[in-house]
């Protein structure tokens, strides 16, 4: 609860208050108005912003998914089993990163490193799937500017892939810190921030998968 | 220890170039924002003067039609993205931490990065003039005019890439101030005790966070069209130019409120102080601001009534647009309610604040006229709409920012701007402004199209255009008076007291200019207008002059080069896309160098101890 205002000038408040603030800053981390860390709040607000980014890209894809006067359309080239596999791997990775975070918070280094490695592996697998998919589509005759379906598909999934790459890179740096022993439970937040971003990238794919791959096949 | 290590170190370093390039102090960053934005504002003003000189008389040929296109495009782009937005950012940076009783923003180095990305992006855009390739497709870059086919040169590349760079600065600042305001408030400062300017800033940042990604994607799509030959916006390839308009205005309409909400906040700080009574209807002000922001996302298509969206869409967007008049009206009545029965003091900041109310009402009324879709056809794309948005952007935002400049100058620089010159500035600006823009309503209703290079005699446009041009030079003269005022103030250097106006908010409890650590003792707040409460309790009108404390033991982040490195990296990365067509590979070496510079900068930044360069104590 807030203490009532001092009637004296703030700059001449008692030295006891000052001492308290010093202790506070030095040992307890900065005071925050909400019970949430600054960095976490920043990541959440950034994720909110990113939602609009992907919403716009997905809308653009929906407008142009049937625009393939020349070259292949969705039905001609989509490989649903392959993408389903990639989707499953990415889904599991969200669970893996939760386990890694749990290990970090418990101070269980082995658990943390193991699950983190698994998460990074999932990220790399997914990127590999996308590289395979893109080159396969290209050989099927769908270049970047062959038709608008292709342009909007590559732009949307390409940006998602870029996000996966950034997330994987982020997790790798956290992993490197953890190997060096620089990730004690008190610093588990460093992993949590990367994990939040990772969950977001996964969630976006959970929307892209049915909207882009499954719905396009139906139409 | 009489003087702390901290103070000695920082005093010794103050003023050197490196200290400004590496600063993470929100106050220095605010001053750099203000100085650079004012410079860009002057450039935009010179562009306007050339436009007005060309239009003063019929059949004039002062500039070529091509250069004229560049002038009005860059005037609009400059005033919005390099003038009004960063001038607001100056106040966010300098005053948000002071108003909420914080030592700094949540992410000081991110803040520095925003600044440098903004400055480099602005210089990059204006550099286009030196290459004789300034953007020339209008400030909203309508496709297909902005596509490679109709804008083949580098002109629109400068625009697309320049805006993309500036967007990064805005997003970074959005994340930063959102976090700062929600999380760094002084103990006891609940959301409903925050000063109004803090509220409108918070809502502005939410608008930035939700609308900038949309323009980012739109610009990416346009860049893909221009650079790789895709056809998102070209009908020939199955694309739809309407998509550009929708995406642009989904961003562009909230942007209007990004420009005006900070102005609302500044006015809401100034009116109570010079009326000697609290802001009338505080909660209504908060909710109306939020409601304006919410509605702002539902009205974007009122910029597109003339595109033939169909009666259903036109009706929806007409009604939604009319609704915006309600929360805005609430605000205006609350401002008048604040004045009502107050003991008014007509100091310069107050004059500009009152000027704001009158001018903004005028602009708001013609705005409501635009919401009527059938009548809109006569108003859009004529000088009527030019008159309207200058009344809200200049009569609104710039009057409020100027009011803020006079109000907060003593706190920022520790000196008082001259009152007499300030009043001259106000009356000249008010007269020049109205002489410039009021006749445009009539020119527009007579059918004078906007963006027109020249016009023949005999259509009835001559008188209104001559009046507007004379007004424009008067307006420019008033800005010179303002610059003279600043020069006189700097030369005379009369120290300002900590609390020259009898203020209500926390920034007035600390010395002018504030010490680097802002608050020697972190303030505790128990109600709105906390400083008035303190004065009431102490039975005084102004607080005793605060002493410059040594700041011993206060923890401040150290300066850092990495934000600047990252900003340069981002600039180089994007420049790479412009010269890309010289190389066979789509990502030329310049892009790769920029990417590596950015990546290295981010990693060095992430692993730099927050106080690596800070003095030890």
Characterization of this structure:
The complex is a heterodimer of chains A (219) and B (617). With 219 residues, chain A is mostly helical. Helices cover 75% and strands 0% of the residues of chain A. In chain A, helix 2 (38-64) packs antiparallel against helix 6 and helix 2 (38-64) packs parallel to helix 7 (188-218). Chain A starts with 14 loop residues before the first helix and ends with a helix. Chain B is mainly alpha-helical. Chain B is built from 18 helices and no strands. Chain B has helices spanning 5-13, 17-21, 26-55, 65-99, 108-130, 155-183, 196-228, 241-275, 282-296, 311-339, 348-370, 373-379, 383-413, 419-445, 462-492, 530-538, 562-578, 589-607. The longest helix of chain B is centred in the N-terminal third of the chain and has 35 residues, at 65-99. Chains A and B meet through helix 1, helix 2 and helix 6 of A and helix 6, helix 7, helix 8 and helix 16 of B.
Q: Which SSEs are present, and which pair or pack?
A:
The complex is a heterodimer of chains A (219) and B (617).
Chain A: H1 15-27, H2 38-64, H3 74-77, H4 80-106, H5 109-139, H6 148-179, H7 188-218
Helix pairs in contact in A: 2-6, 2-7, 4-5, 4-7, 5-6, 6-7
Chain B: H1 5-13, H2 17-21, H3 26-55, H4 65-99, H5 108-130, H6 155-183, H7 196-228, H8 241-275, H9 282-296, H10 311-339, H11 348-370, H12 373-379, H13 383-413, H14 419-445, H15 462-492, H16 530-538, H17 562-578, H18 589-607
Helix pairs in contact in B: 3-4, 3-5, 3-15, 4-5, 4-6, 4-8, 4-13, 5-6, 5-17, 6-7, 6-17, 7-8, 7-9, 8-9, 8-10, 8-11, 8-13, 9-10, 10-11, 11-13, 11-14, 13-14, 14-15, 17-18
């Amino acid at each position: 609860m807030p203490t009532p205002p001092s009637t004296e000038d703030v700059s001449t408040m008692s030295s006891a208050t000052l001492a308290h603030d010093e202790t506070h800053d030095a040992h307890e981390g900065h005071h925050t108005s909400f019970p949430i860390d600054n960095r976490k709040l920043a990541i959440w607000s950034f994720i909110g912003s990113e939602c609009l980014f992907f919403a716009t890209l997905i809308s653009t894809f929906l407008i142009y998914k049937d625009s393939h006067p020349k070259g292949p359309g969705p039905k001609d080239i989509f490989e649903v089993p392959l993408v389903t596999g990639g989707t499953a791997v990415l889904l599991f990775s969200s669970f893996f990163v939760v386990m890694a975070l749990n290990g970090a918070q418990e101070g269980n280094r082995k658990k943390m490193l193991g699950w983190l490695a698994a998460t990074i592996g999932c990220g790399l697998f997914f990127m590999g799937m996308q590289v395979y998919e893109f080159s396969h589509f290209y050989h099927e005759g769908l270049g970047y500017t062959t038709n608008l379906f292709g342009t909007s598909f590559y732009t949307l999934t390409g940006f998602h892939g870029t996000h996966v790459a950034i997330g994987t890179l982020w997790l790798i740096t956290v992993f490197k810190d953890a190997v060096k022993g620089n990730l004690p439970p008190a610093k588990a937040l460093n992993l949590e921030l990367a994990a939040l971003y990772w969950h977001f990238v996964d969630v976006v794919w959970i929307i892209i998968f049915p909207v882009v791959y499954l719905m396009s096949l139906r139409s | 220890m009489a003087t702390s290590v901290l103070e000695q170190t920082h005093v010794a370093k103050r003023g050197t170039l490196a200290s400004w390039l590496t600063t993470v102090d929100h106050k220095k960053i605010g001053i750099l924002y203000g100085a650079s934005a004012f410079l860009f504002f002057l450039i935009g003003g010179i562009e306007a003067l050339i436009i007005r000189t060309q239009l003063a008389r019929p059949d004039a040929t002062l500039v070529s039609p091509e250069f004229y296109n560049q002038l009005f495009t860059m005037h609009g782009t400059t005033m919005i993205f390099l003038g009004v937005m960063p001038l607001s950012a100056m106040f966010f940076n300098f005053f948000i931490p002071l108003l909420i009783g914080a030592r700094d923003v949540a992410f000081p180095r991110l803040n520095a990065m925003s600044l440098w990305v903004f400055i480099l992006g602005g210089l990059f855009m204006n550099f286009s003039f030196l290459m004789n390739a300034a953007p020339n497709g209008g400030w909203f870059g309508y496709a297909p005019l902005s596509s490679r086919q109709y804008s083949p040169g580098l002109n629109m590349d400068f625009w697309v890439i320049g805006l993309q760079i500036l967007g990064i600065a805005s997003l970074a600042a959005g994340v930063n101030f959102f976090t700062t305001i929600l999380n760094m408030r002084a103990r006891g400062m609940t959301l409903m005790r925050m000063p109004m300017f803090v509220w409108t800033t918070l809502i502005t940042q939410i608008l930035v966070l939700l609308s900038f990604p949309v323009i980012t994607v739109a610009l990416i799509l346009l860049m893909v069209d221009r650079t790789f030959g895709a056809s998102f916006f070209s009908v020939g390839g199955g694309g739809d130019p309407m998509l550009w308009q929708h995406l642009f205005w989904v961003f562009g309409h909230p942007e209007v409120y990004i420009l005006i909400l900070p102005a609302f906040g500044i006015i809401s700080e100034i009116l109570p102080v010079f009326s000697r009574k609290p802001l009338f209807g505080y909660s209504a002000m908060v909710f109306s601001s939020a409601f304006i922001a919410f509605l702002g996302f539902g009205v974007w298509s009122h910029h597109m009534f003339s595109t033939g969206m169909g009666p259903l869409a036109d009706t929806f967007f007409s009604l939604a647009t009319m609704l915006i008049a309600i929360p805005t009206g609430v605000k205006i009545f609350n401002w008048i309610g604040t004045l009502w029965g107050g003991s008014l003091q007509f100091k310069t900041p107050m004059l500009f604040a009152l000027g704001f109310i009158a001018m903004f009402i005028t602009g708001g009324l013609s705005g409501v006229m635009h919401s009527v879709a059938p009548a809109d056809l006569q108003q859009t794309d004529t000088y009527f709409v030019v008159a309207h948005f200058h009344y809200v952007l200049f009569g609104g935002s710039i009057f409020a920012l100027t009011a803020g400049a006079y109000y907060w100058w003593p706190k920022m620089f520790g000196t008082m701007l001259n009152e007499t010159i300030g009043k001259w500035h106000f009356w000249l600006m008010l007269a020049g402004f109205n002489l410039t823009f009021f006749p445009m309503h009539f020119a527009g209703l007579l059918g004078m199209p906007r963006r027109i290079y020249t016009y023949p005699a005999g259509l009835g446009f001559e008188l209104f255009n001559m009046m507007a041009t004379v007004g424009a030079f008067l307006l420019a003269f008033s800005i010179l008076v303002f610059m003279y005022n600043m020069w006189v103030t700097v030369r005379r250097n009369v120290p300002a007291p900590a609390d020259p106006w009898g203020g209500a908010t926390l920034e007035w409890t600390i010395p002018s200019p504030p010490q680097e650590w802002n608050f020697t003792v972190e303030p505790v707040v128990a109600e709105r207008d906390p400083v008035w409460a303190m004065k009431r309790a102490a039975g005084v009108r102004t607080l005793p002059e605060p002493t410059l404390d040594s700041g011993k033991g206060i923890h401040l982040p150290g300066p850092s080069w990495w934000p600047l490195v990252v900003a340069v990296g981002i600039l180089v990365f994007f420049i790479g896309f412009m010269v890309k067509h010289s190389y066979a590979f789509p990502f030329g070496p310049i892009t790769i160098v920029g990417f590596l510079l950015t990546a290295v900068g981010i990693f060095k930044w992430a692993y730099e101890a927050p106080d690596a360069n800070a003095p030890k104590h």
